[in-house]
Amino acid sequence: MKGILKDRVILIGLVIFLLLSFVPHVFSPYVVGVFNIALYFAVFVMSWDLLFGYSGEVNFGSTFQIGIGAYTAAILNINTHLPLSVCIAFGTLAAVVAGLFLVAPALRLRGPYFGLITLVSVLLLEQFVTIFAQYTGGEIGLSVPGIISVSSKTNFYFALLFCAFSAIVLLIIAKSPIGLILQASAQDPTEAESLGFNITKYKVLAFGISALFSGLSGALLVFYLGTASVSLVVSIAVVLQIIISAIIGGRRTIIGPILGAFFIILLREWLQHLGQLNYVVVSIMGLIVLLFLPNGIISLFLRKN
Amino acid sequence: MALLEVINLNKQFGGIHATNNVSFDVKDHEIVGLIGPNGAGKSTILHLIVGLYKPTSGTIKFESKEIQHLPIHKRIKKGISVMFQHSRPLSRQTVLENIELSLLPDKFKVFYPKDIKSKAVEIAKKLGLELVLDKRPNELPFGIVRRMELAKALALNPKLLLLDEPFAGLSHSEVSEFSRLIRSLKAQQFSIIVIDHNVKAVKDLVDRIVAIHAGKIIASGTPDEVISNPEVKRVFLGEAQGTAFEKKLLDNESNILLEANIKSLKYNKAQALSDVDLVVREGQFVSVVGLNGAGKTSLFKAIFSFVNYEGDVKWQGQSIKHLHTAEIVNLGIAFVPETRELFKYMSVEENLSLALQKVEKNEAKKRIEEVYSIFPRLSERKKQSASTLSGGEQQMLTIARALVQKPKMIVLDEPTLGLAPIVLDDISKVLDYMHKQMNLTILLGEQNLHFALKHSDKVYLLEHGSLICDCTMEEFKERIGDKYLA
Description:
The complex is a heterodimer of chains A (305) and B (486).
Chain A: H1 2-6, H2 8-21, H3 23-26, H4 29-55, H5 62-79, H6 84-103, H7 113-131, H8 133-136, E1 142-143, H9 152-175, H10 177-187, H11 189-194, H12 199-225, E2 227-228, H13 230-233, H14 236-249, H15 255-270, H16 277-292
Antiparallel strand pairs in A: 1-2
Chain B: E1 2-13, E2 16-27, E3 31-35, H1 42-50, E4 57-62, E5 65-66, H2 72-78, E6 80-83, H3 95-103, H4 116-126, H5 142-155, E7 160-164, H6 172-185, E8 191-196, H7 199-202, E9 208-213, E10 216-221, H8 223-228, H9 230-237, E11 256-267, E12 270-281, E13 285-289, H10 296-303, E14 310-315, E15 318-319, H11 325-330, E16 333-336, H12 348-354, H13 361-374, H14 376-380, H15 391-403, E17 409-413, H16 421-436, E18 441-446, H17 449-455, E19 458-463, E20 466-472, H18 473-485
Helix pairs in contact in B: 3-4, 3-5, 4-5
């Protein structure tokens, strides 16, 4: 236990958790709602960080998994009488299965192929949603009847626990032998394989876990907001926000991405009144952070070495 | 019973036979040296054994089972382990964690095995790493990092250990220390293949040597047998036959074209050059000779600003240290790199015209015709893509590409690399033509001493990054020649 507390990253995670648990007592329900979205978004970013930060694979299509999870759960909720939890479970499963069948085969290749295929997968999903508009609601999106809770407090604490749970699982994996082997394969794939590791196996596992949390968080987000739409869970713009958040927060730390997610979501909300300029200002702020903290916000709290 | 059997192994890259019908074996508890000059095909054989490449044809048997179709990790699990010459260890982890990585099973494990730390410490101690367990690789000197790499390879508990150029980049004292370390492993229960370009470095270490040149085995046997083999002597020291080319009168008064004073050049921790001063005068043919790893390529990289260094390089009196590579080339210095760097999917003619993008069209055509008259073979193959050329033809294309730029001086890095003796004669004639008929100033980097001596007005001998001799041909022969050649 003492050993765990010595790890700065875990300590920072605990502090974030404690601070966040006071949010509903301090802020208005509207602000709590913004934090709530940021919590689900943070899970997207952490999942992305597992794949990029540890195995070095750039996933330009994490919204493929998020979107499949979200839309599968939403469509099931609208068209069947299955309980909400079952819809969410199927959504998550669909995200993992679709990811493993369509995208993971590219992990066997070296070079830019994985990144390219993930990018294409998102564009395909976007088209798919538009073409099958009678089921997916097309560009307008879907309204779902199911809802996690009507209380903003309940919603918030549920999201906080979910985010904490995801962080713990992802951190355990990142710090396990699996994480070490992933890092070795990112650094020098030939050498990692020459130490006897079937590196594809580990990358597929990391991808599967990343898809699981992305899909689950996507499905939960739908039932928190009551809607699913392309601009919310599929669009390339969302991917870019995820990537920027991970890098601003501090890649390869799992906890850093939570900071990045809050930075981006809260800043955008705060600058809402700027209208279109909002994106520009957020991007410039992001660049400034990167210029002074190339290892992300979390490096402020980490020992130098 | 042989542990490893390599039978009729062939590997082709485009038109190049990197290994040509290679067969040899390694017995239990034997140390075999795989020796050959740079570019001979040693690394290709290593990569074929480990599984980085699949052979074009041939068989590799390990403990009597064929393994040539297996992926790398399956071969490692059978008991092969390798220490690569260039590796990138985990840089954010400590030495101990790097060794632990090696000890992990290839299974999804959330927790580390309990005894992994004590096992890693034990291996580290064996290699004298106990004082640096908590250091990261980039905080450590190069020699220690090599030991950590050896520890990682040993942690796999191999039956066959492959060492790829284990002494490259190490200082004299580190070499002997590392050699002693490897010899102490000999007492343990496994076989070793040591790959090296230098016969001297391994002759006390190995039981048997397999010598390779241009992808073929040219000799094998005990170290003494191989070293005294005339073919081996010829390959390693270059062709002794053939008279030297007639030398131009050495003009020590002509203008200095290039002057390099490199105080220090380092790659991370590895010292590649120290205090190397070199002068090339207009019209001279200057050679920089030395074994592979002596620092020849590093010197050229410094001249062309490919790497950072302490010191200065001047071209016709002006410092060019802060210029970019392209700007330096535009001053009139052409580079023929060791690795050739051809655009392999482009045709011969496209490769040549690419070097002439800034030249007016008719002039470009004229220059290409000119080089075709020097290299008629290239003219025959002008529509062929560069990758389908033989090694010698590729080398000629690389030289031709430098020539069309009409340089004042041409820098050639190991133009004889991996080429058969007949091709060497052709290259020799071309160099002589360039020097005498075209009046080009030439700076040649060469490990084939005879090849270099045939042409040179002046010779610089590099050893472990330092200049041993800086002299005219006559002085060189008198002072160093015999000793070095023997």
